[in-house]
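Problem 3 from the worked examples.
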Amino acid sequence: DPAGKDGASRMMVALLDEGAGPYDSAAFQTEVEAVAARLSFSADTDYVSGSLRTLSDKRERAFELLRLAISEPRFAEADVERTRSQMLSSLRSSATSPNWIAGRTLTETLFQKHPYARPSDGTFDTVPNIKTEDLRAVHKRSFVRGGLTVAVVGDITPDELARLLD
């Protein structure tokens, strides 16, 4: 995450399935459910990851929805604000956990001024200041063709996968 924008990557990935391409959040979720797919994303200090699970006979549409999520996210203001609220609620909950407090203290002590000392889930100071343009910038840096690693398991040939990924 950029300095002062701790939590931006987590917010960005939380929004990838909250509307993409021509679909708002509800419509996108309906499309994913219609093909019985599972689409999820996560972010940590060093990486962004995603997962798509789909039935073989629905893979064309599922891959298209994955493409929309990673290449045309909407980052609609209402979705951004809802996600921000959820992140702040999670931070409030975590702030009462002795394990979370100890983990944060240890990380800050061990890594001090190194980026690893910064919380990937954000802080009460940084999460409110993450703007849509910050999310777009993090997205642009995170999803570059030469920077992706793809692992696939299941009923698909390398040629089929190559076509779907392209």
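Problem 4, a separate protein:
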Amino acid sequence: QSYLYLKPGDRIPVDTPVLFDVGRRKQIPISDDLLPNPWSITRIAWDGDSSRFTFLYNQRGHQALRVIAVSADGMARAIVDERSQTFIDYVGKQFYYTLAETGEIIWMSERDGWNHLYLYDGRTGEVKNQVTRGPWVVRDVDLVDEENRQIYFRAGGIRPGQDPYYIHYCRVNFDGSGLVILTEGDGTHSIEDSPDGRYYIDRYSRVDLPPVTELRRTADGKLVCVLEQA
């Protein structure tokens, strides 16, 4: 069997966005200074007023990850410019969410040494605030509640004294306040919300502990009762 695989030095196709003025049937040039060697260009989206479009640029080598905005006249600028001297984990530690109503961006980064969330002004590119912080990591985001400006996420290492690989569920406000750890037991967790969102079922276990199933209250994470111990 043989398999064609491009090696360093081989000529490779390069994808770049191309902008057209439909009315004038004319291409509008876009500077490629910010996207010289793309591994991928994804998440292309126009603003509601058609004044610009944005996309996620992942540079070959994975030491640069950018949210780039291109205005209707072809001017390109980096809204988010994430850089690393080593490696950006664009699969396991990457989250990019745009809030259409406010123009804000929620972004995941290891820039302070721990994997955390940041709130950006999507127009200016300024970091409004760091949403999560501390000697623990955000593992994934489950829900962005735009109406209440809250983020539901999973974390590792957030419960002192527990194995840092155990998964816990948490909630935090966009401005970084009001952090609530919704799960408590010494183990790795999975939860299931009630239809009205007021309660959730929390199941946790360890290699040396059969599953424990609890009913908890969403507002503060407090235990209502233990439902079952296997």
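Solution to problem 4. The CA atoms of residues 43 and 55 lie 5 Å apart. DSSP finds no helices and 18 strands in the chain.
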